[in-house]
Amino acid sequence: MKNCHSWRGVVFFFVILTICSPLVSRPLTAADSAWSSLPMPQSVGAVVDLAVPPGQDGLIYLLAFDNGQKLWRSNNDGGAWQLIYQTGGTGLSAIDRFTVSGNGIVLVAGRTGNGPVYLRSADQGQTFTQFTLPAALDSDSGIAALNERVWFFTSFDGNRSRVWRTSDGVVFESTEISATPLSSLKLSPGFAADNTMIAAGADGNFYLSTDGGVHFSALQQSSLVGEICFAFSADYSVSKYIYAASSTAGSGIWRMKVGEPSWTRIDAGLPGGTMISGIEVSSGGIIYVASGNQVGASNGGLVKRSPFNQSWETARDGLQAGTTLWDLRLRGSRVYSLDTANNRLVAYNDTLASPIELLSPQSGAPGIGTFASGGVGGIDLVWRNPGGASAFQWQVSDSYDMSIIRFEGSATAETARLKNLDPGITYYWRARAAAPSISPWSAVWSFTTVLGTPVLTTPAIGATVQILQPPFQWQPVTGAKTYELMLSSSADFNPVTAYAAGIGGNAWQPPSALLPSTGYFWKVRAIGTNTSSPWSAVSAFTTTAPPATTEPPATTPAPTTAPATTQAAATSTPPTTSVKTTAPTQSIAPPVAASTIPGALIGILVGMGCLSGLVVSLVIKTRKQRRD
User: Fold this and answer.
1) What is the enclosing helix (H) or strand (E) of 163?
2) Helix H segments across 538-598?
3) Which residues pair with 445 in a beta bridge?
4) Measured between alpha carbons, how far is 481 from 534 in angstroms, rounded to an integer?
5) Is the pTM of this model over 0.85?
């Protein structure tokens, strides 16, 4: 599974070095953004190849050379190792290459005394089944597998190179490629759908197949020579990009859009003489490149470039001077490589490959901040350090697409304080790590600033109003859509006399009269889009007493004195609803004047009245008889 180098060359390299030098191993945690050495099997020998199955966290396979070849497996990122296969005895006499398919099938290609064979395991190497191969793999070239039945390998017989394919794991067919050996073979990320694969030759030629290896066509030749490694972009089905490099010093890193006629060099900014031992591209579009140069102050280590930062960044933290990275494997944002200078497995957890997490204010937070001096402040942006970040950038916009940046800044802590924001505005914000490398921007969150507090003007505080339906007014508030008003005869607004919402302007008049001779309290707040202001300061006023009224005197026979003046008595009851009524009035009837005539005279007058009545009656009766 080597990308750029023959593992046989690695074995020789280790033999001539003092291997297994004692090192301090620091466990790698999710918060780290530095290289760490992983524990190794005891008496492992010279490690020459590794496989890191995608989607299976902690699972690693190592191929080592120690009086024969040994295949090791760890299920917990090197915490413990198990030897699952070794050559010799009745098994394989040599292992040429091995790989792990996307669904976790282990394929080991090698030789016995009877010819080339391969081993297949569906249980992570607990058991193997042996099958015959039609040709021996070239150990300097490629092997790739979709699953246990569909897989491919390359061979070179000294005259022609071939790509072999099988669809059932038993019967193989081949396609002749060129007269030079092939150094790498890879399937596209969407091979199950597009049947695309590419083989790279040591002469800089690349060969494309879109029918599962039946036919190949040559792409534009690159300027690369030697041990070539390449990688598909994660979005190859759309972008059609491939990336390539070589172990030849200074040969550069190149990109091609398949279908276009030329390669583009993209390694500007890297140290001269850089040798590339492995290349991978993450699902997020980050290009990871392992340098085969010894780690120094300005050389070696891991270099990477992301789509959101077109400059190459270097990750050497945790690698001791002299470390040489050989090959590269990627699982998610975790990078694995072999340190050939110290015969160890190292890993780098790229915590800054993913967007950082925002914490506060919560997205959609309404009416936050403190309004003062015409602006809003007191809002703290807070995010989480994913681990390893030493600096951050943040941006604030009033548009969701962040097309116009209103405020931005940098911070060394996980927070930034905002000030001078407009009131009643919905803002959008994001953040990212800025050092030691740049992370993608976070998700975009929003918040809405608080509105300014209304200032009450009419009725003035302490005023006595002369009308019982007085107008209420206040100063308009910037950003307000409507207003709410609360009125009560109690300072604690319990009960509420009137509550008005949806007031379109900065004035309101009660629909009916208030009570006279009554003290009232009122307050207003502004309402905006997804926000509101604090309630205003409470103002108070008093309604005036009702004017005095008189009623006309009652007519009596021959009054001897003037009637008393009538008075209206008003009652005032604290209202319990928001409906106002005119204070009821009650009229008191006028008293009759006392008599001053003596009692005897009254009797004579009464008697005379009766006699007069009798005389009138006799006269009327006599006149009637005469007519008859």
Assistant:
1) strand 161-166
2) none
3) 429
4) 15
5) no
